[in-house]
Amino acid sequence: MKYYAFLHYSLNTYTDQSWGFGNEDVRSFNPSKLDCRQWARICKEAGMKGIILTVKHHCGFCLWPSKYTEYSVKNAPWKNGNGDVVREMADACKEYGLKLGIYLSPWDRNHPDYGKPEYITYFRNQLTELLTNYGPIFEVWFDGANGGSGYYGGANETRTIDRTTYYDWKNTYKLIRRLQPDCVIWNDGGDRGDLRWVGTEGGLVGETNWSLLNAKGEVEWNMLHYGLENGDSWVPAEVNTSIRPEWFYHPHEDSQVKTVPQLMETYYNSIGRNGTLLLNFPIMPNGLIHPNDEKAALEFAKAVKEAFAVNLVTNMKVKASNVRGNDKQFGPDMSIDNDKDTYWATDDNVTNASLTIDLGKPTMFNRFLVQEYIRLGQRVKAFTVEALVDGNWKQLAKATTIGYERILRFPGVKATQVRLNITGSKSCPVISNIGIYNAPQILAAPSIVRNQSGEITITPADMESVVYYTLGSGQPTSKSKKYTGPFQSEGKLEIGAIAWEPATGKSSPVTREKFDISRKDWKITGINDEKANLILDGNPSTAWHQNNDKKMPVDLVLDLGSEQKLCGFKYLPDQGKTTGAIAKYQFFVSQDNTEWKQVDEGEFPNIKNNPLWQTRSFTPVKARYVRLRAVHEVNGNHDAGYAEVDVITK
C-alpha cells in the first residue's frame, strides 16, 4: 500500500469553499453524474492500491445516510434521498480490486453538541456505522483540525476543545481494533496512531526518514518530518498532498493541476524516501473527477513505469564484503533476485559493509533504488553509492536512511560497476532489493515571475533547455517567441511558456501565469522598514514580517498609486516559515487613506498546512488604498508575515 488515493467531496464542493461552515444547504447536494466507478477506474489505472473517501468533512455533512443526523445524503435531492455515496464507493472498490478507507472529521461545525461529552457518543456511533456496514476498511483518517468557529446547530459561535483529551482516543481506538482489527489509524492529534503526518501537505518527507516515534509524549515538527531514530513505536510516514493546489474542487484550479514533472518530484520525495503517497483528487460538483486530473494521474503512472521499466542489475554478478555466517541464504545474490522475502545480511558485529555489482560493460544509469528487509526493522543510518568510471571509483550519492524503499537521483553516468557502501547501521544491515535504472529525462516547466518594476523573468529548470513563450492565451511551441532575457511589461498580462530540448525535440508542460496591474507605482505606507518591499517583488521565496511587538490585529496598508476598480485580493504567506501565516483577516479600501470601507472578512482555512496563494473576491469598488488586516495568526501569535500581496481589478 505505498500509493493510494484521497477523494475530497462534500457540500463545500458546491459553495467553492475550502472548508464548510456547517450551515450549508443540504439541497445543494445533487450531482448529475456521480459515478464512483469512474473514481475507482481512474485510481486503478493510475496504479493506486486503495481509496480514502472524505465521508464527513468539517462541515458535518455525511455522504452516507447516517441514522444519527439529518445532515446527510438522506435529505438531499440526489436520488430522492435514497443515495449512499459510501456504499457506491465500497462496491466500486470491490469491483476494481481496491481497498477502501474512510476520512471522518472529528471536528463537526454543524453538530450542536460539539465540544460536549455527548458529541463523542455521536462520533463513535457514526464510526460504528462506517466500520460495520461497508466491508473491510484498510485505514481510518482523523484530521487534526479541531475546534473553532461554526454553525453548531444555530449557535454560530467559536468553540475550543483540548485535542489531547476531548476525544478520548484510547477508547475510540479500542472500538476500531474490535470492529476492524486489520485497519490502520491515521491521527494528527491526541494519542499516537499507526501512521504519521509528515508536517506538510507539500508532498515530501525528510531525506532522513525513520519509521519510528515514541508511543507517548509531544511530537514536534522535526519528529513528524524525519521520524525518531530511537523511537519505541513503529509509525511510518504517510505523505498526503493534492493533485491541485487545494483539497476540494475549485473551477479556477482547472489549469493548475500538477504536471508530470511535479508529480514525479513528489514520488521521489515520498515513496522514494521511505514514505507512502496519498494523492488527492477533488470531485467536481457533477460527481466526477475532472478530465485534467485524470490525464495528469495516468501520465504520471506512465512516467513511473517508464522510469523503472528495466532493472539493470538483473542477471548481473554481485559480491559482498561480508556475508552472514558465509551462508548462501544471506548472500549478495539475495539483494538482486527481485524477491522481497530474501535479503543480504552481514554478521552481527558488522555494521559497515559493501555490495559491488558488476554491470558487465559500460552502462548508463541515473537512478539507484535500495530496500531494507523491513520485517526485521529499519537499520541503516548512512550509506553512499559509488560507480567505477574509466577505472576510477566516483561517489554518486551520499544519504542517510533507507527503510522500505529509498531512491536516489543523480546525473547520468556510464560505469562498469556500482558499489553500495553501508557506512552506518543500528545493527547488521539486511538489504532485500537493489535496482539500478536509466530513467528518461522529463522536462520540467519553467517558472515565470514579474517584479515590482514590471520586468518578466522566465527561468528553466535546467541550463540546457531553450524557452519559448507566448503573450496571451495562445499555446507556446518551439515556433513561438524565443526567450532571450528579462523584458518589461505593462498592465494586465497572460504569459505561457515551455522548456524545449533541442537534442530530442521534447518540450515541457506549459507554465501559465496571469498578472494583474503593474505594481511599479505601489508603496507601503506607515512602515519605515525597506525590507517590507519584499512583499511586492514578485518573488514568492522572499518574505517580510511585521515587528513582533505589535499586537493583533495588525494592518498592512498599500498605496496603489492611482484609483483602481478592485474586485478582490490575493495573499501568499511566508513559504519558508511555519509562523506568521494569517488565519483570519479583514480587508478595507479607501480613496484618501483616511476614510475606510470594509469590503471583506473571513478566514484562510488550512493555510498552516497548505500555505498557498489565497484569493478572495468582493463586490467591485473604486479605491486607491487597500488595507489587509491580520486578525489572527495560525499559531495564535502576534506575528504577521507576507511573501506576496496583490489585488484583482475589474
UniProtKB/TrEMBL annotation:
Organism expressing this protein natively: Chitinophaga oryziterrae
Domain (F5/8 type C) ranges: 301-439, 499-650
Keywords recorded for this protein, A-Z: Glycosidase, Hydrolase, Signal
Range of residues in the leader sequence: none
EC code: 3.2.1.51
Uppermost EC category: hydrolase
Family matches, as InterPro entries: FA58C (IPR000421), Fn3_assoc_repeat (IPR026876), Galactose-bd-like_sf (IPR008979), GH (IPR017853), Glyco_hydro_29 (IPR000933), Glyco_hydro_29_N (IPR057739)
Family label: Belongs to the glycosyl hydrolase 29 family.
Keyword Ligase attached: no
Stated name of the protein: alpha-L-fucosidase
One MF annotation (Gene Ontology) recorded for this entry: alpha-L-fucosidase activity
Pfam hit, one: Alpha_L_fucos
Record-level GO cellular component terms: lysosome
Biological processes annotated in GO: fucose metabolic process; glycoside catabolic process
